[in-house]
Design brief:
297 residues; alpha/beta; Rossmann fold; 6-stranded mixed sheet; 12 helices; 13% strand; disordered N terminus; Methyltransferase domain-containing protein; SAM-dependent_MTases_sf
């Protein structure tokens, strides 16, 4: 199973880069994960420190890292997240909890989970992070697990996979999941100005993620449904977000950061996350689709 390894490479300090290399060389060693968690905590990234500590706890087979050295980030702090990110995590939180009813502490593999914020949105889960940009782990590295996770989540990942690798990628994720695979990402939509919006993001922001959306093209809902049907998996699809609003939120976050108006940026995000995180899913021009796949038994 191939995961697009160049995705979210980001800028890493020399110490963090070295710790990531050491972790990959000894990926089953919880201490390697904890050393990286400590460095991220020192760098002011508490959510990522908690996520990687949770991964170390998962490897140890220990209790969840709720009261560990790097605790769950509280919701009041999470409210300052970029609105688009916050809404994604709220969506995934609800989706996983809906699918996990009856499971006390479901195990969860977060593929391409970036800063690991999902671990703080789902503190009841036995969480493991796999992201090439933050802990060096790709989907190729997780094949050593002897049994599948209860759930696998891939948020805004599929559209970054080259078209000819997408179905193998999804097959690999399903093989890692016992109860369900959750995808949340933009899909091709003939009725929305997706291409124009992405081109505007590239023009004004130069975002690599938008360049990859254009390069690899967005997946089609019908293709994913056909893939699931051919393998006997059940699938459900829900709209998520509103594309123009998501673009405005993205531009606001970018220009506030450029102005170094961090306080104002957080105030705006807190307002949006408190007041506009419900009833913003547009059937005609959604930002993304939430896809829940239950593997064939």
């Amino acid at each position: 199973m191939k995961f697009f390894k160049k995705r979210r490479s980001g800028h890493q300090g020399e110490t963090i880069s070295t710790l990531i290399q050491n972790l990959i060389a000894d990926i089953k060693n919880p201490d390697a994960h904890m050393r990286l968690a400590s460095e991220y905590a020192s760098a002011g990234r508490p959510a990522l420190a908690h996520a990687i500590e949770s991964s170390a706890s998962f490897l140890q087979g220990a209790e969840r890292a709720l009261d560990g050295q790097y605790p769950v980030v509280k919701n009041d702090d999470l409210l300052s997240l970029n609105h688009n990110q916050y809404y994604r995590f709220l969506t995934l939180q609800q989706a996983v909890r809906d699918m996990a009813q009856g499971l006390e502490h479901p195990s969860l593999l977060d593929i391409g989970g970036g800063g690991g914020e999902l671990a703080s949105f789902l503190p009841e889960c036995e969480y493991f992070l796999a992201d090439p940009g933050t802990n060096g782990i790709s989907s190729d590295h997780v094949s050593f697990f002897k049994k599948p996770f209860d759930f696998v989540v891939a948020c805004h990942v599929l559209e970054h996979i080259p078209q000819d690798l997408r179905w193998d990628f999804l097959d690999g994720l399903v093989a890692l999941s016992q109860h369900g695979l959750v995808l949340l990402n933009p899909f091709h939509n003939d009725f929305s100005p997706q291409i124009e919006g992405l081109e505007l993001v590239v023009d004004l922001i130069g975002a690599d993620w938008a360049k990859e959306h254009l390069q690899f093209t967005l997946p089609k809902q019908s293709d994913v449904e056909d893939w699931a049907a051919a393998r006997g998996h059940s699938i459900s699809v829900e709209v998520n977000g509103t594309q123009p609003f998501s673009l405005v939120a993205e531009f606001n976050d970018f220009y506030m950061s450029k102005l170094q108006a961090q306080s104002d940026r957080q105030k705006i995000n807190r307002f949006l996350n408190k007041t506009i995180s419900k009833n913003i899913d547009n059937k005609e021009i959604p930002t993304a689709l939430l896809v829940k796949i239950v593997p064939k038994t």
